[in-house]
Sequence to fold (662 residues):
Amino acid sequence: MDKEKIIEKNKERLRVISAVYNPITGEGSTSLPRQWIEIEGFPIERINLPLDMHQEPLVQQLAQMGVSDYLRNVARIEPTGRNIVKLWLNFCLMRTRHDFEYWARSMTTISDKGKGRDTAFTLNRPQRIYLKAMEELRLAGKPIDIILCKARQWGGSTLTQLYMLWIQLVHKRNWNSVICGDIEKQSSIVAGMLAKVISRYPTWATGGKQLTTTPYQGAQKTRVISWSNSRYSLGSAQKPDSLRSEDISMAHLTEVGLWKATHGRKPEDLVQSIFGAIAGGPYTMKVIESTAKGVGNFFHRTWIDATKKRNNFTPVFIPWFSIDLYSKAMKESDYSTFIDSMNDYEHELFRLGATLEAIAWYRDKRREMPDEWRLFSEFPSTAAEAFQSTGRRVFRTSYVSDARSNCVPPLFVGDIVSQNDGKSKFVPCLPGEDKGEDMLRVWLMPDNEQHLRDRYIVTVDVGGTSNKADYSCIVVADRIAMTDGGVPEIVACWHGHIEHDKLAWKAMEIARAYDNALLVIEANTLETEGTEGDNFEYILNEISGRYSNLYCRTSLQEIRQGRPRRWGFHTNSSTKPMVINFLIKALRDGLYIERCIETTYELDLYEYKENGKEMGAIEGNHDDRVMATAILIWICYNHPLPVQTNSNHNTRKRKIVSEASI
Fold:
């Protein structure tokens, strides 16, 4: 876009931002379809009403006749001041059922954040964007299921909670809700806001009755709203026992990105227990909202699934430049010079919708926060930026995003077992058994009809056995496409905690099932851990006598000289950068097809350490899938291509495959 077009587009955006927004008249309201209507004789004669309210008989009659004629000819009463006010209030009550923005402005009182005063709730610009997503679902008669990835300081949680209260006070009776934060303090803040709104609700809207809340069955954290007999329960992810999730119709889960998984309790378990109590249907709500807190956690996984339409949540993201607070005044005469100074990223911000004034603010903020990843996390321009986790990442975001686009749910989840006839059997898990770990996930079942030698390659990254230790990982690649100029594809993955002897035998079972694949086990980790490593070396020696296609790192020359065979791939200060750098290239150039979404999460969390030499997962995370995949892809390209063989793989003569032969 040339400079003149940028300036003109910027003026257009500023006109939209500064346009009048009046929820009482409806001017500037864009959350749902509206149409202007004139009713002669009302205190406000011209109103921009929601389209569905236009269909109300009262509205149609008033628009045709005016207030005075309506009162005389339809209501059969004189158009006195008292009767006009009474009709006006009835009209306003009807409007509250159709028009949330009007209800919020005229019926609610909240604390004006940072100003120490109370004010009517008037939606800001990002709140109106969010409201539009909720209203589209409501008007379509669908469950209002939203996952909200948000920047800071615009009131997404406030809008969510007041929208739920609107449903409880205006639309439904006996319509119960749950509010759950990471800690109790977050829920208590919400409780204080709701108590203020309810206590100050105008009595003219309730027939003169003052709204109150009372404890439900003596529980202070569950309150009953007197007007509609609806309850709201407060709780936290850290203390979920106080939540009453039975017979609920709405749930608001806030700051879910902070919810921590612990042994025996995962965020998804709590979410499922709450959401499982909601039957679904019109006016039900499930809202998961949070600022992004890294990748691979429950919030990030649910967001990715929503963007790929693999769940029922509508994803809503609010970029920082939609928040009017983040803007710096600029003279129009300075536009030209400023545009000349813009870098490529700032031009991208303008393309995304930021004004020049917002970009000027962002430039100053960037000087304050030199760590780009922290800036992205606090003030994301896109959802991908929001989930940045480190400023020392090894794999570029764009490379990982490209790989993630090929990820799909597995066709099979379960286990593999050996039968009496020596063949392997894939046993699917039962519904509800898949807990995310200790399961084999398969995207393509073995094709053993063609008997291509080393079509499949299996690599193993060995972890610990305790719940707090690193995981073990087994990854399988199919190389058949490489024989025709294509690229290898990930077809199976096992990930979990398991005793080392069982891991080795499971890896052998998977490799045997995949046409006696080349089995590459990364052994150095345990070889440096004392007796546990020595034991694993013994296990590898045992397997070598039972499996004919095991990777050996002892060269043929060393074997001829009488040196013992050392089984497994040795990852050290030389080979680790080698396989990681090759994986970077493979991701950049599309040299393999990734299918496992969890692997891409680990790629996002893999960083250079502060010394600039070591690499690994961000503290508190794991890189087992990354290492298993890096070794796998390196061997895929540095091992001879698959060749046709007519012999039985399980009885063929042993072929020593080593680092030297590769």
In short: The longest strand covers residues 489-496.
